[in-house]
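Minutes, project huddle
Topic: does the predicted pose make sense with FE2/S2 (inorganic) cluster bound?
PN asked that the exact inputs be recorded in the minutes so nobody has to dig through chat later. Recorded below.
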Amino acid sequence: MKNFKSKILSQKSIALGYMEMKFSWPEDCETPKAGQFLTIKIQEQPIPLLRRPFALSAYNQEEKSASIIYQVRGTGTEILSSMKDGETLDVLSPLGNSFTMPKKKETPLLVAGGIGLGPILYFARELDKAGYSPILVFGCRDKSLIPDLPPLKNGRIQFCTDDGSEGFHGSSVDYLNCLDSSELKNAYVYSCGPTGMLKACHNFAVSKNIPSETAMEEMMACGVGACMGCVVELAEGQEKQYARVCKDGPVFQSRIIKWT
Ligand SMILES: Cc1cc2nc3c(=O)[nH]c(=O)nc-3n(C[C@H](O)[C@H](O)[C@H](O)COP(=O)(O)OP(=O)(O)OC[C@H]3O[C@@H](n4cnc5c(N)ncnc54)[C@H](O)[C@@H]3O)c2cc1C
Ligand code: FES
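Predicted holo structure (tokens), as shared on screen:
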């Protein structure tokens, strides 16, 4: 983990209300892994006071750059979206743990919703490069929220919309349920997005008896394990009752989480 100043290299809108920001990554900072996150001190003024957490959505070794995909939600992300190329970010990263690589014969099923797209996209591209055939399923309300994404080389990206305006008509978990048994035989589910979607992905994995990991995105204060502000309750039988998303996660085996 390192606290560094980074230069914004580019910003663009990729879907309604969603931005992608690329920024410089220092030579002497460790390479971030898919699932890890960073926190940004938005500005020197007291508001917003707390650093804002975002998952890494890409890392480019040659260019020494990294990216995030974020939704403009409140004060912090509004300020972020108004920042221009060349402006400086105060970044603390890489934080948290990362997704586990599947076994060579496994098919990664990656499910993203809303702000969960960044880490899932990063992992899908890593798996694609490593020769896996990942299936990335992105679910959203309608086609205005579908981002413009370059295709995967070995895998595929499937969009699902609630209103059927593009892609599969239904939720991402409805789509998983339509996959044929050969694709599910050696599947490994990875998910990031709204809690209801994560719970449905977990239930799907349990019903098919396949492993599943989930990246949680609880509200955070310190982001480094000191305040207990980001705890999630763990399922019965775990050694501890709670885990800190920032320090023990954000990626967890979904079976250890208490899904209420
Ligand atoms: C580990 C982690 C990774 C994250 N990765 C991303 C990412 O890749 N892209 C992205 O867009 N966002 C991500 N988030 C959420 C992001 O941190 C919040 O959207 C951001 O802090 C909002 O800041 P703001 O000042 O604009 O909004 P605020 O004014 O602070 O809040 C506006 C509204 O946003 C919602 N909100 C704020 N924080 C969160 C949160 N952590 N989870 C869910 N809802 C929240 C609340 O409903 C709140 O009312 C991540 C959060 C965590 C903990
Ligand atoms: S945000 Fe402080 S412990 Fe996680």
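Observations noted during the meeting:
- The two ends are 33 Å apart (CA to CA).
- The helical segments are 75-82, 117-129, 172-178, 181-185, 195-208, 245-248.
No decisions taken; revisit at the next huddle.
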